[in-house]
Each structure stands twice: as C-alpha cells, then as structure tokens.
Design goal:
By secondary structure, the chain is an alpha+beta fold. Helices cover 21% and strands 35% of the residues.
C-alpha cells in the first residue's frame, strides 16, 4: 500500500490522533476547508462540480513526511502530481466515491472520470490543497428541477467546512434563474457526540446506528433553476 493513498494516510493520521493528549476519543480525524463550484451551462444543465479541499495542518504535515523540498522551498511537481493521481484513485472507491452524491428526482447520478486533478502546497498556511473536477456522466437539465448535492464522509473520519465567503458558487455561465442553497449539517448534542466518539478505528465495521448519525452530517447544496 502506497503512503500517498488518501485512505491509507487518513487511517494513519487517525491512529496518530489517538495517541495525542486530549483527543483520544475525538472524531473526526481530518478536517477539510472546502469550496465547490457547480458548473451549470447557459441552457441550465448541471454538467460538473469543481471542488477544492484544503486539508488541516496535521494531515498536511504527515502526508508530506519524507518528501524533500527543492531549492527555494517548493515541493517537486512530480511528487505532487503522483500524490494527486494516488488520491483520486483512492477516492474512486465505492465507499467514499469522492465523498460526493448528486441526486435529481430521487435518482443518484453517475460521474464521468474526474479531470483537472492537482495537489498543491500552500506555503503560507503550510497546508495541502486538492483540486479536481467531477463531471456528470450525462448533463442533467435543471429547468423546473432541483439537484441535491451531498458532500460528506459516511465514516466521519473526514469533516468538511464551507465557512469561507464564496465557498459555494455557480459557474458564471449559469442562467440568472438558477440559484444554489446551502444547508449545513445539523448541530450535534452532547449525547450524539459521545456516540460518534465510539466509532471504531476500522471504518468498514461502522455500526448501523452510527452510520445513520453520520448521514445526518452531510453538507447539502440544492441547485435549482426556475422553469422558463
């Protein structure tokens, strides 16, 4: 298993977190500041989702262990390119499936192969950034309809935040009749947080009752276009 595999690194960071004071029962184990652009063309068809994930400092530092910087302090482009390829391959796994679900009229839509994937290093913030575009296998017309896009990790090892201004936008090509609505995850009470703290180290063995809770932690974006 390669160290740059996102799932493998996530689990190793989880194991590391369990050894740190004060976080022995903490979930999640990775935090992502996310942005998403929903590509809606001039005809009102949803065609793709452009995503930008900025990983937290602990994960970023861990993931770059053993990667030597070039003169001037930059990481080698070929290493970052290989990391992007590995991560996108790992995210293709059916369990994660890019942590993104798109539903229209109750039907889950399929994706074409991702494109424009890249890993970058933010030297100022000392954090890794993953960018990629997730095209739909077939564009879907949204005139008079709504697309529900859920972004979340069902195992709750990864937590997302869309807190930055402009974190959720439509492409400039989108008609003025199309609007995105962001619905954040529900707030957790103390008892529920205690239940999530019991998530086992192996996400494949996540109990059904905990899986039901994590499904309520989705970040949902509703993209709707008024009928002409």
């Amino acid at each position: 298993m390669r160290r740059t595999d996102l799932s493998a690194v996530t689990r190793r960071v989880a194991a590391l977190a369990l050894c740190l004071p004060g976080v022995a029962l903490a979930h999640p184990h990775m935090w992502i500041d996310a942005r998403a652009v929903f590509d809606v063309d001039a005809a009102g068809n949803l065609t793709a989702i452009e995503q930008r994930w900025m990983f937290d400092e602990m994960f970023s530092t861990y993931a770059m262990q053993g990667v030597k910087k070039q003169k001037g302090g930059a990481y080698p482009p070929d290493k970052l390119r290989a990391m992007a390829d590995d991560w996108m391959q790992a995210l293709e796994d059916p369990i994660s499936h890019y942590f993104t679900r798109v539903t229209v009229d109750g039907e889950s839509l399929k994706y074409a192969p991702p494109r424009d994937s890249a890993v970058q290093w933010d030297a100022k913030l000392q954090r890794l950034v993953l960018r990629f575009t997730l095209p739909l296998a077939q564009p879907v017309a949204l005139a008079g309809k709504q697309a529900d896009i859920d972004i979340y990790d069902p195992t709750y090892f990864v937590a997302y935040a869309f807190d930055a201004p402009g974190a959720i936008t439509l492409a400039s090509s989108a008609p003025s009749t199309c609007k995105p609505t962001y619905r954040p995850p529900r707030q957790l009470d103390y008892a529920t947080m205690q239940q999530l703290a019991a998530i086992p180290p192996d996400p494949d063995s996540l109990p059904d009752e905990l899986l039901a809770i994590t499904k309520g932690l989705t970040h949902r974006v509703e993209v709707a276009c008024a009928a002409s």
